[in-house]
Design goal:
The chain is about 15% helix and about 45% strand. By secondary structure, it is mostly beta strands.
Length: about 325
Amino acid sequence: MKHWLNDTMNNCFRKIKNIQWLPVVLMLFVISVLSACKDNQECFDENNDYVVGNFFARNEDGTLQEQPVAVPIDSMIAITESGQQKVITQDDEGNSQPITLGTEFRLNLSPHDRTITYYLEQAGFGDTIQFTYSVLPRFISEACGVGFVYKDLTMAISDQGKQVFPEGEVLQTDLKSGLPNIQFVLECHPEYNDYVKVDFQNLAGEPELYQFDSIYTVFPDNTYINILKGLQRTSVDLPIALGLTSQDYYLVREGITSKLNVQVNARRYLTGSGCGPGVVYTQLKVQGAPDASINKIETVQTEILSDDNTNVKILFNPLTGN
């Protein structure tokens, strides 16, 4: 009985020791596989199944900035040549989930097709990017097995008439690790804005503080925007809804409602981080009939909406409050 017990205990200890060595054995196996792949550099150099891209902005002197910029994307859908569709900007539950294309963003390709089209949308405006390519199956090594080599990449941008997508360039036609394949150069206008700057003046043309019951606008989708309420101001910024070329604003002072109509010409551009609102507004025109509150409306800057410029001056009649 004593010998049997000793033999049993020894067997148990040997099994425990073997189990303790199991992680070490697995680790050595993984290292050996990776080392075999590393010895054959093609395993890494020609194994990308995605396009690597960057967005750059220009400096004022026309040169490119050294670091890429991030671009927010509200919607992105990929459709392959065989009709397979994938919504990139969607979570696992099917909810909309905007993304940011950052430094060296990736757009996946399919080994079963030779063409894939990406539909990108930003703030309601979009374009398409279409990639064509060739795919060759290739035995890489015993450790790495068979992989696909993606070559002969071309790119076409289709303007849908809504979004001015930046010009793109194919830098590398073969999809090799560590090399960007495409590059876009963005317009960058950090000084531009998407609102009209209005200054308030008295009849002598001097800045003056005025009390307003409210200043508001109503967008086409019936969204009521209360710009300010019950405050004193010497100026106000009137926001422009993206996509609109004509918008009405209402200034209420001591119960008197004055209507302003703002018209602009809008040119869209794909914007990145720190590169402005994504739209250039020009040909500003502001109209409004004189009334008991407003004496005169004067447009002083029509071409570019920026923080450096006052666009409109309004001369108010004196009322009982001011």
